[in-house]
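Hello,

I think I submitted the adenosine monophosphate job twice by accident. Can you confirm which output corresponds to this input? Input:
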Amino acid sequence: MKDCVFCKIVAGEIPSGKVYEDGEMLVFRDIAPLAKIHLLCVPKEHFAYLTEADDRRAALLGKMLQKIAGKKDEWGLSEGYRLVINQGDNAGQTVKHLHIHVLGGEALPWEK
Ligand code: AMP
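Support: Only one job matched these inputs. Its output is below.
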């Protein structure tokens, strides 16, 4: 989608710290990390909210969760990680392209 920063990253129009890519998803480093490891897992197809997830997109979200679980050691998340999906303004969603925050690499706030 025009003017979507994550669509531009998916299209290779803006550089990113890519850690994984396949035909349906991209995983890259957050530009302003909130933990030692802070990745963003995004579907390549643009949609903003979980309410837009039909069965096909829900299946893709499941694959994204499966991929994160499968790559946890490779990505430095062996000791645990936290997944966050911000939805809407009250949650502080700034990029309206659905994304899963993957946070870890250290004991996270409110666990220390
Ligand atoms: P949210 O507040 O859930 O919408 O999260 C958006 C996230 O995208 C924030 O953590 C930003 O730091 C991150 N972000 C914004 N632009 C970029 C970019 N060009 N490359 C990597 N991460 C970005």
